[in-house]
Amino acid sequence: MILEIRLTNFYSIKDEVVLDLRAANIKTQKAKSLSDNTITFGDTEVLKTAAIYGANASGKSNIIKAIRFCCSMIFSSHLNNNENTIFNFKTFKFKGFDKKPSSFIIRFISKGIEYEYGFSLTIHEIVTEELFYYPKGRKVKVFTRDERLGKDKSEVYSFGSVIKKPLDVADNTSRKTLYISRASQMDREIGKEIFTFFNEKFILGYVGFNGLSVERLFQENKAQLLKALKIADSDIQEIKIRKEKVAGKNINADLATQKLTVKDIEQEHLLVTTFHKSNPEVPFDLHTEESDGTREMFFIMLTILDIIKHDKILLIDEIEQSLHNKIVEYIVSLFHASSKAQLIFTTHNTHLLNLERFRKDQVFFVNKKPDGSSDLYSLFDYKDFRDTMDLEKAYLQGRFDAIPYINSSISNLKELMHETK
Length: 421
Fold this sequence. Notes:
Blueprint: E1 2-8, E2 17-20, H1 29-32, E3 38-41, E4 44-47, E5 49-54, H2 60-74, E6 102-110, E7 113-121, E8 126-134, E9 140-146, H3 153-156, E10 157-159, H4 166-171, H5 179-185, H6 189-201, E11 202-203, H7 214-231, E12 236-254, E13 259-276, E14 279-285, H8 286-289, H9 292-309, E15 313-316, H10 325-337, E16 342-346, E17 363-368, E18 374-378, H11 391-396, H12 410-419
Parallel strand pairs: 5-16, 5-17, 11-15, 15-16
Antiparallel strand pairs: 1-2, 1-6, 3-4, 6-7, 7-8, 8-9, 9-10, 12-13, 13-14, 17-18
């Protein structure tokens, strides 16, 4: 369960932006009627979904991109043994921010315990890293790290009493590597707990991320998948999956000898076959005979059913891609009906902007500031916006910014057409 994410100096993000999933103290009748939109954790209410709106090029996708990068660092940084490694992200390019570190801080719940983890880095190396947790509701230090304090590991690191032989891990942690990743690799319990959360609970996209297997997900969720597709007005009543061998070529070019070798190989291909209600005897190949929307729904629902079943978190950019508005509403409703699953997504779908569906603190906006950086803020920040107002209309009118301002007057368009001749 995610409580809060903070990002600084990633892509178009210059100053710190905060995605806070802790529910605000909203006492209106409409908010009370949306009690299924939150999860209770102790004295804290946590949002199940967060919708992020913004104009094209405002930076909303950069927020998703930055979160994905930071999570992938956690489960892959221990593989960075090459001193020439350059981390695959960009800093804010103006005002000297390309020379400043970028930072990521996340507060989350794993197995009933709250953690606060963060790190900062340049494109060349880790600068700082820290982990705290709250085993009995009180903040306890696991470790802190600051590579600017010296060359000796004892100067760089400070430890609590949680990790056994912590300096052994530090001695095996380079400036290219996150300590928490190395601690997991070296079988330290809290390191494994953090690693497992990001690798197994924080799903960075539909199938294809986090090593999720289509075959495994299908075997575990077939009955629920067929029912979910039926609810979504699909006439698919049966799906079968099998692996088959496909002949292929492996081409290898040796630059030293300037020779090209070609070998015949066999690769396993996953064949997905659908059967429709109108004629259940006729098979359809999912990849070549079904629509883009049907293929999208197949993979989306496989992922979502697993996420909901195991109380995971899903991160999606442009949730409406290839999907009808009603299907997007259906997906959001599935998360609201879940026990503890969470969904963070960007969208242009203004039909979702309805206070019968979302609390005010579930709607976020990204706006491009005059200096080219991205700002993130919540509808809840607009204290004068009442629950009785038309949210979609207000957004499209530009009340919250975060929309493109287009001067499409006839005179402008005619001038454009004239200049293109």
